[in-house]
Amino acid sequence: MFGKRGNDDGNRFTPEFRQPAPTPSVPPPAGSADTAVLARPVAAPQPSTPVAPPARRAVEAPPIAQDSKRGREKSETYYDTKSQVFSALIDTIDLSQLSKLEPESAREEIRDIVNDIIAIKNFAMSIAEQEELLEDICNDVLGYGPLEPLLARDDIADIMVNGSKNVYIEVNGKVEQTGIRFRDNQQLLNICQRIVSQVGRRVDESSPICDARLPDGSRVNVIAPPLSIDGATLTIRKFKKDKLTLDQLVKFGAISPQGAEVLKIISRVRCNIVISGGTGSGKTTLLNCLTNYIDREERVITCEDSAELQLQQPHVVRLETRPPNLEGEGEVTMRDLVKNCLRMRPERIIVGEVRGPEVFDLLQAMNTGHDGSMGTIHSNSPRECLNRIESMIAMGGYSLPQKTVREIVVGSIDVIIQAARLRDGSRRITHITEVIGMEGDVIITQDIVLYNIKGEDANGRLMGEHVSTGIGRPHFWERARYYGEEQRLAKALEAMEKRAD
Questions:
Q1: Who's near 338: CB < 8 A, 6+ residues apart?
Q2: Banded model confidence at residue 60, pLDDT cuts 50, 70, 90
Q3: How crowded is residue 135: how many other Cβ atoms within 10 Å of its Cβ?
Q4: Does pTM surpass 0.85?
Q5: Which of 97, 197, 78, 184 has the alpha carbon at shortest distance from 137?
């Protein structure tokens, strides 16, 4: 498919299919191998012409097996060699043919051609350096360039790219800078365009803000110039390859075993749940965990800005919002999705994140026979969560009396679960709180489980425990009894009280 052979004098590399790649004006579609977008030098010379090294030092990601979490610097000679090899590859390869191959086959083709180029040009490289060069070039052509090694690591929670020079990661709750660099801001923007184009979105000067997702469900946010002054800003919230469960959260200390049992029961008996928390507190992870206890026979519909929930039930319908097109038309909002859900015979509605007037439609759904619905909201306490819900309803232009709004909230939400990221970087479930009714115009809540911080150890890690507040029978006791879970609930609360004593 890709002709490649050297001539007799060994100084030129003549392909059978020579097709210089034009520089595209739009990002390549998903699965495309159009490397001119990602890594083509500004002027691609003939392979025999020396190529000047990049003006800015680029520092690629470390191999996955490397202990250091920081990028390892490479010499200017390495980048000079890489630039020459890459120019020869782009000048040689037939990109239209490459795009028709499966990823693994395309990777093998690229490796074969690069090995031939290295041999013909007589680059002095060790086997390890050659293998590293092959991997870097394959990542530039077929993947996300310098980001690929970071995306492959399962210990990273967030990747934060602040322009071409600064790449940060979060590991174990702590943010640290890597040594990774992009060639320039244009390469970074091109990679951002490739990511968002895979889900039918765009990012450019006319639409500089975009939410998207990677194929594994990782959440992506891009803000491009002119809004981002020092180059594109890319933020990736990575999902672990192995989905977390409540039992694993117990091992991490996010919740006690008895508290996890209460959460399982709450989800099992179809309580309407709102998960509250700040940015990076683990709301989506907790929501994924709770959905594991939905019966497999139930029809579940999810509504998200960027589809990232990973439900395991067989009967799941996933819906995603859509931004407006270039003419400002065709937008589908979260509220549109939630309203349409009611016509799809849902048994549970799950909203990835409630941000605005759609909260009113979700509350209406919770209050009209769709028990067991769930959603997340940004707030710092259960009481603040209720206040934010009232504010978001007002944002929708509803001119309802305050008492009426609060009555709707009380009639819709059963439990608020508060997640928090503590100052040591750990994530904890700090409240399991019931919404039980009203006294006058005030919503009454009661805490079932609280997390008490007791101090910190020698390493600065916070120490604490989850305790029961002594509520013998929660407000959802009758619901638990209806589903045959009252004995299990009583044992969990009793065990928590004894532990507190």
A1: 303, 349, 351, 358, 361, 362, 365
A2: very low
A3: 17
A4: no
A5: 78
**pLDDT, mean over the chain:** 80
Tokens 């890597």 belong to: 178
Whether the pLDDT of residue 73 is over 70: the answer is no
Cα–Cα distance list, 124 to 77, 78, 81, 257, 476 (Å): 11, 10, 10, 58, 72
Q: How far is CA 31 from CA 55, 96, 200, 211, 252, in A?
A: 30, 12, 13, 19, 37
Range of the domain at 205: 5-237
CATH code of 412's domain:
3.40.50.300
| Predicted confidence (pLDDT) per residue in 242-288, tens digit | 678 899 999 989 999 999 999 999 999 999 999 999 988 889 889 99
For the four alpha carbons of 161, 165, 171 and 175, in that order, the dihedral sign comes to: negative
- Same domain flag for 143 and 174: yes
The Cα–Cα gap between 417 and 466 comes to 13
Cβ distance 106 to 97 under 8 Å? no
Residues 14, 50: one domain? yes
Runs of H (alpha helix) within 143-184: 148-152
Kind of pairing, strands 273-277 and 174-177? unpaired
The β-bridge partners of 233 are 162, 223
Write down the pLDDT at residue 408: 92
Residues making up the chain, counted from first to last: 501
- DSSP letter assigned to residue 332: B
Q: How many domains does the chain have?
A: 2
Q: Could you please report the per-residue DSSP string of 381-432?
A: SHHHHHHHHHHHHHHTT----HHHHHHHHHHH--EEEEEEE-TTS-EEEEEE
For residue 79, give both structure tokens.
């980048």
For residues 92 and 202, membership in a common domain is answered with yes
For 431-463, how does the pLDDT look when each residue is reduced to its tens digit (9 = 90+)? 999 999 999 999 999 999 999 998 888 888 888
